[in-house]
Amino acid sequence: MTGKKFEHLLQVRWGDSDRLGHVNNTRFVEYLQEARALFITQVLMEAEGSRGATVVRKLTVDFLRPIFDESGPLLIEVAVSRIGRTSFDVRHRVRDRNGSLCADASAVMVAFDLDTQASRALTEREKTVLAEYPDTGQS
């Protein structure tokens, strides 16, 4: 059985390029955040009827090739690679307009209780819905 896919198209913006003429690495991180926030909001809205709060515990990015103004639109693929008791891992792949892999990143996301300001257990429904977006491991 194959899972659902979450993809976000993003245009390279004029101000994203640095003095070297390519998209600065900090912008890559912003691209990842934009796609991940949409994914989490939409997926957890499906699960719970409201966006459960999550925080980034760890973010790792492999910058594989530069992105230029003409590289877009970019396709950012988001998938879930691990689901734990209070956290889950999100894998992001950034592809240019030709399908070339420009970045491969992972984030550890922790479910968060805004009232107690502490981690909370993922609900069974959240786990079920997150599992519908499996990371296939393919680059």
Automatic annotation (TrEMBL):
<dbReference type="InterPro" id="IPR050563">
    <property type="entry name" value="4-hydroxybenzoyl-CoA_TE"/>
</dbReference>
<keyword id="KW-0378">Hydrolase</keyword>
<dbReference type="GO" id="GO:0016787">
    <property type="term" value="F:hydrolase activity"/>
</dbReference>
<dbReference type="InterPro" id="IPR029069">
    <property type="entry name" value="HotDog_dom_sf"/>
</dbReference>
<dbReference type="Pfam" id="PF13279">
    <property type="entry name" value="4HBT_2"/>
</dbReference>
<protein>
    <submittedName>
        <fullName>Acyl-CoA thioesterase</fullName>
        <ecNumber>3.1.2.-</ecNumber>
    </submittedName>
</protein>
